[in-house]
Amino acid sequence: MSCSLPTGFNEFKLRVNIKTTFEKAYKSIATPGGLESWFLRTALFQDIDSNIRSAHEFIRNKDIYSMTWYGYPDVVSEKGRVLLANGENEFSITFSNASHVHFRIYEEQGEIIVELTEDNLPTDDETKLKHYVSDLKGWTFYLVNLKSVLEGGLDLRNRREELKDVITS
User: Fold this and answer.
1) CA-based nearest residue to 101, from 111, 109, 110, 91
2) Largest CA distance in the chain
3) Hey, is 90 helix, strand or coil?
4) Which residue has the higher pLDDT, 151 or 7?
5) Which residues, at least 6 apart from 132, have a Cβ–Cβ distance to it below 8 Å?
6) When comparing pLDDT for 21 and 6, which is higher?
7) Structure confidence by residue, pLDDT tens digits, 45-96
8) Cα 87 to Cα 31, 78, 104, distances in angstroms
9) Could you state, in order of their start, the residue ranges of all structural domains in the chain?
10) Who contacts 113 (Cβ-Cβ below 8 Å, separation ≥6)?
11) Does the global pTM surpass 0.90?
């Protein structure tokens, strides 16, 4: 996995190589069930008519979402909207503190690369400390977990809410 850190602390980029197919990688980032397999405890996506997407249904542009994580109570959640879902290799959402998270899938040196960029991060000192560092740490773990799930089926997440301060949640 590689990490690119710009000097302004308003964005970062992470890449991970995964022995998988484009289709499996995209399903993992662009369906509610896919996101729940490596990243989220619950991924609720709704279309513009408030219809809830099924676990295996592709998420679409302008959907809204609510998500929760294992290892945290339901009050720790994120709500936002889908900025881009191209049905093939790109997926973007709004995320914490008005940032944007963008996934891109491509081939490099014969391997599938899943690249994540989080940008639009505010650059005040509190945000740099709280969001930039914690988001970077969290995404690093979750991309490793995506690789683990897709390559071998092993989910590394902590599922116990009472177990605190571990890197797996």
Assistant:
1) 91
2) 42
3) strand
4) 151
5) 9, 12, 121
6) 21
7) 999 999 999 999 999 999 999 999 999 999 999 999 999 999 999 999 999 8
8) 10, 23, 11
9) 2-152
10) 15, 16, 17, 18, 105, 106, 107
11) yes
58 neighbors 33 (Cβ within 8 angstroms): no
Quote the mean pLDDT of the chain: 92
> 123 vs 72, which has greater pLDDT?
72
CB atoms within 10 A of CB 95: 21
Could you give the CA distance from residue 105 to residue 9 in angstroms, rounded to a whole number? 24
**33 by DSSP, 3-state: which?**
helix
The sheet carrying 111-119 orders its strands as 2-4, 12-18, 111-119, 100-108, 90-94, 77-85, 64-68, 42-46
What is the fold of 2-152? Alpha-D-Glucose-1,6-Bisphosphate; Chain A, domain 4 (3.30.530)
Q: Amino acid letter at 61?
A: N
Taking phi over 0 as left and psi of -120 to 50 as alpha, with beta for the rest, 136 belongs to alpha
Pair 39, 30: CB distance under 8 Å:
no
